[in-house]
Design goal:
Blueprint: E1 18-21, E2 30-34, H1 36-41, E3 44-48, E4 56-57, E5 73-74, E6 87-93, E7 103-104, E8 116-122, E9 136-144, E10 154-160, H2 170-177, E11 185-189, E12 194-197
Antiparallel strand pairs: 1-2, 1-12, 3-6, 3-8, 4-5, 6-11, 7-9, 8-9, 9-10, 10-11
């Protein structure tokens, strides 16, 4: 089996196919295969305040590892092991069926009142995505590994222009928890998973 490596070692490999896998030991579930063509179409969003929500894989292994070490997985730390920044880089997918294998949690009311803002979009295939910068993210569910049910490795959310006063307070929770799953977009955290380069 090929070594599983960190995003820091894959981010510049634009002409190779790679498989994104579950980071947890004894799992190795395939989440999605990314070809060079697909990679160009997957925008990477920088979103704030998710550092204490999603797991990070500490990049302390220069050459990757044959088997994930769960001691490298934490919440509230940057992928290089230093204190967490307030930005997370996430790959955006528009449809749950774009994944080969992903689990989605029940609606999470604990996240409803948190404020998550899109700060930047990288590798833009369409200039229209720049309009998302500054918009709010309504996080509704966590993404987890479908096989081992561990994570969270991403979020299912709505992108909105702003939160109106009517949505604040008690009514906001019910509205968002009962959101239509067909309107959600999916964000996979790039440093919450491991990568396997294909020959």
């Amino acid at each position: 089996m090929a070594s599983k490596i960190h995003f820091n070692k894959i981010k510049d490999e634009k002409d190779k196919t790679y498989i994104i896998r579950c980071p947890f030991k004894n799992c190795n579930s395939r989440i999605i295969q990314v070809s060079p063509e697909l990679s160009k179409k997957l925008p990477r969003y920088n979103i704030n305040n998710l550092e204490n929500v999603l797991i990070s894989i500490l990049d302390n292994d220069e050459h990757g590892t044959e088997e994930s070490d769960d001691s490298r997985i934490s919440i509230g730390a940057r992928s290089d092991g230093s204190a967490a920044s307030n930005l997370k880089k996430l790959i955006k997918l528009n449809d749950m069926w774009d994944f080969d294998n992903i689990g989605v949690s029940r609606p999470n009311s604990n996240l409803i009142n948190e404020s998550f803002i899109i700060k930047d979009v990288d590798y833009i295939d369409s200039d229209n995505l720049k309009d998302d910068i500054g918009k709010s993210i309504e996080v509704i569910r966590y993404l987890v590994c479908a096989d081992c049910d561990r994570g969270p490795i991403g979020i299912a959310a709505n992108i909105i222009d702003s939160i109106s006063e009517e949505q604040d307070g008690q009514g906001k929770d019910l509205d968002k928890v009962n959101a239509n799953p067909n309107t959600l977009v999916y964000f996979l955290s790039v440093d919450s998973v491991l990568y396997e380069l294909k020959d």
